[in-house]
Specification:
With 169 residues, this protein is mainly alpha-helical. It is built from 7 helices and 2 strands; from the N terminus they run αααααααββ. The protein has a domain at 34-95. It has helices at residues 22-29, 36-41, 43-51, 56-65, 75-94, 98-102, 121-129, and strands spanning 152-154, 157-159. A two-stranded antiparallel ribbon has the order 1-2. A hairpin with a 2-residue loop joins β1 and β2. InterPro entries: GatF (IPR027499). Keywords: ATP-binding, Ligase, Membrane, Mitochondrion, Mitochondrion inner membrane, Nucleotide-binding, Protein biosynthesis, Transferase.
Length: 169
């Protein structure tokens, strides 16, 4: 005889360690934090406004660089938004996180390391030399040599005069 077994599976996702009692919840909520609204509307906005209000020409250039329409743009609103963004970025740069790193539990922190070693030119060349073509992505080894057909080389420039269309019909 075949019996069907039914069961329920409950799943949950956690962000951090669970609270054990109400006191821990109150302690967590009582921690001093700063909000984005305080930063954007605080005294630093006035400093940023005095230090670096972009001119209309700069706003037009930024809009053009971002491929936004320049003719129909509300330049005053764009200026105000830029000042807010700059003050927020300045506040983030001024905030020290060194004191917080000592008590930081890395299980609940970033996925990337906080202290990165600077990449030098020699390290970059070593990484490039160590790259192997991946056949899983359709790059069979030795399939194409970008400078193999070059007849002339001068100052790290290669001149290819023939051979690119050799096998085409």
């Amino acid at each position: 005889m075949i019996r069907a077994v039914f069961f329920r599976r409950y799943t949950a996702a956690t962000v951090g360690k669970p609270f054990r009692n109400v006191a821990e919840v109150k302690q967590y909520l009582a921690k001093q934090t700063w909000s984005i609204d305080e930063i954007l509307h605080g005294e630093d906005t006035g400093k940023a406004a005095k230090q670096g209000v972009p001119t209309e020409e700069e706003v037009r250039k930024l809009l053009a660089l971002c491929a936004f329409p320049v003719e129909d743009a509300d330049l005053q609103n764009s200026k105000r938004i830029l000042v807010k963004q700059l003050s927020f970025i300045n506040k983030l740069h001024e905030t020290s996180v060194d004191d917080q790193d000592k008590n930081l539990d890395e299980n609940y922190a970033r996925l990337l390391p906080r202290q990165n070693k600077a990449l030098t030119y020699d390290d970059l060349l070593k990484k490039i030399d160590g790259i192997k073509q991946d056949e899983a992505t359709g790059e069979p080894t030795g399939s194409w040599d970008s400078t193999g057909l070059a007849k002339m080389r001068k100052d790290n420039y290669f001149i290819v005069r023939q051979g690119l269309l050799k096998n085409r019909k």
